[in-house]
Amino acid sequence: MLPAARVEGQPPDELELPAGARVVEVVRGGRAASVQQLRAGDVVAIIAPDETIADLEEMFAPAPAAQEFSLDASTTLGDLRDYYGLQVPDDTAAGQSVGAFLRARLRGRPAVGDSVQAGRVCLSVRQASGGQIRRVGLRLAPRVEAKGTD
């Protein structure tokens, strides 16, 4: 489990898992352990239906930063340009989805936490399943104010 995961600090038997999923074992320090609370570095073995994998990945991924927006992967780059000032690269259509843009830039199977910087905008994979990105995180770097020379 990654640091700052949404489930960090929760008891394994009280996790709100998707239907059909259950915790089988928690491994801490290389050994199966009975733990009261999950912490970073724990390996949590879960049996779950295939259709719940993306939801589980999101649960065990780091929680988004307070300044991060969560978007559907079908949002277009043009929308991000209009709302957040994303500079759409010259070789990319404004109508392309942010999910397709990330998949192309990452050049491989996208995983939760993978990210791409585009100017002031950082796009990260928040939820993915079967090679498809479902949710995207968006963080804006602060604007740098030009200082006057008075």
Could you explain how this protein is built, in words?
The protein folds into two domains: 12-60, no CATH class; 68-140, 2-Layer Sandwich (Uridine Diphospho-n-acetylenolpyruvylglucosamine Reductase, domain 3). The protein is elongated, with a radius of gyration of 19 Å. By secondary structure, the protein is of the alpha+beta class. The protein starts with 21 loop residues before the first strand and ends in a 10-residue tail after the last strand. It has helices at 53-60, 77-84, 98-106, and strands at residues 22-28, 31-32, 43-47, 68-72, 115-118, 121-129, 132-140. The mean pLDDT is 85. It is built from three helices and seven strands, in the order βββαβααβββ. The protein has a four-stranded antiparallel sheet. A three-stranded antiparallel sheet has the order 2-1-3, with no helix packed on it.
